[in-house]
């Protein structure tokens, strides 16, 4: 019954969209690049001893990308070409900064500081060439960053938790970990964790977030040499109040969920319904994902069949297939077998795509939003 209702809603949203094309376009959107998560296997063990329960694939496998992660991902991507000779391209939805843990601690947890990801890569073992590899990916049109905001944490809320001595946030801070489960927080934030950087409870949150948007997009341009045209809020939660700031900084398209609750600065929430190409009052247009490829969600399923089904469905209604993915699919710092599984699945998926749809076009998000104008 629930599945039937879901299919009806998706059908309605597909047909609300004015975006129609006969082209077989495939776009991969992969979130969380640049952000730290679990620093090392040793840190993961220490966090578990401190009470962290590993209940999701991110805390089990996710960590900052390594040189090997990118090199091996690029190797798979460059094996395949579309009808025009273009390789599959990962639109890397990227956080451009992480907390500066040393300076925050030196301030006695009274002030927030951040470091840009080029510094983070230099601090982490086996990530010292990542920035160069990203630039190589950009030049070869196989790995194109777009904005995921500045950092992947709600700064105000995290600092509030850190201000309390002996809090779980302080314990996890020792291992450079801020993805704190809601059950370990000493205050209530809509019963959510701290990963949604643009979640809000009051107007003070909005003021801080405006500065974060501006500095984050400036840093993005400094790091990669171009402006981001799309914006994906971390964890997808955001207040519509930030849309004007995004538009003023050059963002054209907002990548959000089809149906979700948006937090408001008065503490309330409102339902928002989206479809591809929806025009918002702020001037932004909406980009929604209509396919999924997450090979490590299940131990027994690599996600390929589900993704092929989603692609076929998108094509059947005359829309590009915009595939949702996360970095954790291809990361091996904590567990090499996770990366191996993800890359094998990606290889299989790409092989089946080019075989089933020889007329396929592999585009980045930047490419597709220009074609959807």
TrEMBL record:
Highest taxon listed in the record's lineage:
Bacteria
- Annotated Glycoside hydrolase family 57 N-terminal domain ranges read 216-292
One family name in Pfam for this protein: Glyco_hydro_57
Which biological processes are named by the entry's GO terms?
A: carbohydrate metabolic process
Which GO molecular-function terms appear in the entry?
A: hydrolase activity
Q: Which UniProt keywords apply?
A: Carbohydrate metabolism, Hydrolase
Which Gene3D superfamilies does the record associate with it?
Glycoside hydrolase/deacetylase
Which family is it part of? Belongs to the glycosyl hydrolase 57 family.
Name of the protein in question: Glycosyl hydrolase family 57
| Species in which this protein is naturally found | Schleiferia thermophila
